[in-house]
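For the sake of transparency, this paper describes our internal protein records without simplification. Because each token names a local backbone shape, the row as a whole describes the fold. One such record is reproduced below, unchanged from the form in which we store it:
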Amino acid sequence: MIVLELKFKGKPQQYRIIDEMIRTAQFVRNKALRYWIDNQGVKLSDLYKQCAIMAKEFEWAGKLNSMARQASAERAIFAIQRFFANCKAKKPGKKGYPQFKTHTRSVEYKTSGWALSTDKRSLTFTDGFAAGKFKLIGSGDLHFSAPNEIKRVRVIHRADGYYAQFCINVERTEELVPTGKAIGIDVGLNHFLTDSDGGTVPNPRHLRQSERALKRLQKRVSRKKKGSGNRKKAINKLGIKHLKASRQRKDFAIKTALCVVK
């Protein structure tokens, strides 16, 4: 499996519909967890049945694609399985008892409820919410992937916009040419990494460099009135700064540090 991430481009009313889809997925997940709490020993098939019942009981829940509802129920069962696995392994401390979600940021579709355009540069949602057509922006290339190879489509709301992640079922094969040379790598704090030949890659400390800006933005959030529109704007700016630092670390690790070692 490989995952390609592309950014959405749509209209403000379309983004509001996406938010409704995410809230519905959160509702289904929490209802599935509530059903497990009230009926110990239920299986995933039982939660699937509850998804169909919810679609009939709540009209707005029925707008969400049936497979998307099932994917939300799977999130609940995965949390339950992780809790039991931690208990069985006697993990010290808290075992991660499943909790109800209040700030979900994504909704996941399987093989239905969406459609790619012929040029694979736009995505259309075809379920009851009718979010419409979104343009896909990014360097990820879907042209080499057949529609039947895309097993999941996840829509994620981040601080700087909405993104679509495509989970593609392909086999990755790389031809490796043996060089007869081995090298060891140790990751540390003083240096990002040190190899067995004595070479080092300095730690850029992106988060440390962003601390002053993060501190200033966090103060602005604290000074805003809770529940106000200005507080939401300040929180969004703070989230964008955190997202930038996170992406800097990831880009450095993949594009810079590993290239230096090679």
User: Anything to note?
Assistant: The longest helix spans residues 229-261.
